[in-house]
Amino acid sequence: MIASFCISLKVLAINIPLLLLFGISIGWILAKKTFPGRTALSLVVLLPVVLPPSVMGLYLLALLGHTPFLKELGIPFTFTAAAIGALLPSLPIMIQSCRTGFAGVPSLLEDTARTLGDSEWRIFFRITLPLARRHLFAGLALASARALGDFGVTLMVAGNMPGRTQTLPLYIYSQVERLHFSTAYLASILLVAAGTASLFFVRRIEEGRHELSS
Amino acid sequence: MNFLLEGSLTFSRGAFFLTASLSFRGGMGVIFGPSGVGKSTLLRIIAGLEPRARGTLRMKDRILFDEHSRFWLPPRKRRIGYLSQDLALFPHLTLENNVAYGMPRKSGKTPGEWLSLMRLEGLEHRYPHQISGGQRQRVALARSLAAEPDLLLLDEPFSALDGPLRRNLRRELRQLQETTRTPMLCVTHSVEDVSALGDVFYFLREGTLSPGIPIEDLWSPHAAYHAWSAFGWGTVLQGTVEKTEECSWLSGDTWRLRLAEDPSPGKNAAFIPPHGIKLLYPDLPVDPVLQPNILEGTVTEIFSLGSFYRMYISAAGHSWHVEYSLESYREMNLFEGSSVRMAIPPRSIHLFDAPPSTAHPEHKPHSYDYSYREETDILQT
Asked: Which of A84, A157, B94, B351 counts the most CB atoms within 10 A of its CB?
């Protein structure tokens, strides 16, 4: 169980910066930019929410294992695949949350910052990001919990190899299969605690929202 | 010619169209016009916040945008401050940091000095939501000026404030303009702001900007009548000021209107903005203040202009220009030829002759007696 716990933590550690990077950039583009295909993009990023994990896993497997160049990297059924498998279903949560947060920052504030001499990058870091940060943190908490708990996609692309790709949810499945209920329950408690902690964190953020709103 | 801002531009968005030839020397310019004609859009174009504007505009020796050479200077390089109607203070920053936001590195003043200049000392560490509306207005102004712009654009800077605060801020703004020598262009739909603020006056009507007119011309009795008549907007009256025991009156051949101010007797002229004239419902009581200023007339022309109606009423040998939103007076069911009763509130009558400093209600609180009635009385006002 310790090994699976460590793998889960490693998956999480890799996914948090990736969630921040992709969630913030795609969320910002969807909230602040108008371009042809914006609606299409916003629907595509939401697909993982509605597709069954097995279907997503299958396509991801095909992408990683059968496309030229990517094929050479030999990603499927490695730890990297487990990380990607957990990222995919949690990313929509992060993107959606960032998008809502950025869209809630009045463009008038950004326009005002422009006339005060700021470049677009500085406006992003001085105005947009700080004002959207509650949504960002809330999104990150929920998305991390989702990444930590991913089962289906990880199983499809990374398999269930103890010590290499077996994360905690997969470990629980294997233990139940072998009728080792006590360890399954123990691992479950860990995940319940992580999920509860993330919800609690989100609630704290929601409560504090009134403090800085004008 | 040595203009600070010069150019001609067009802008369209959907059915909205704006065209303006602008030449502004500096000092304080006022752009006046009814609501919804594009005053704010014009300021946004000058500030560089509407990249789709066409034409060309230059400030001093810098080109701000030019359609032919496809040049467009981004707002951050224009050195043009923009103070929007909503103030747009940064809610997550203290007042001090708000003011410091656009300050140049080697600025002559600290944020604290700017705040005390605006009489906001001691509030450095407050957040915008912790201060009053008038204070927020001052912080926004300080923030714009602290960035040391070559030109400051103000979009209805007083719209959120009520009577006395408005007057104070107007005076302060005028003083600030004189001390900082920052050229300012201010947009307003209030006739009072025009007289109290500006050196030069522009009139924006139905998407077209008038040439600049010196404010003196606008309020001197001989030039004003022609200047205001030329806009073809609002009602311009010529008459004689008379005094009776309780108040002053402006009289023409067939009409006599009670005035809110107390001007010197003699020949005079007055402007009444189209939204200043109230139509009266026949079956509702009328505020006694309006009683002497009621006229009966006939609608000669009425048409809809998008969000509002415009009509001309013939009464007492004069044509009166009235505008109101689509929602008002709906149940009156007005058409050409309808008889109407209308009231001209004394506060809506803006006399030309009195120079702004004395004509301006600033020093005569009694002339504001009518303002509170509008909100509190259930009578028609």
From this structure: A157
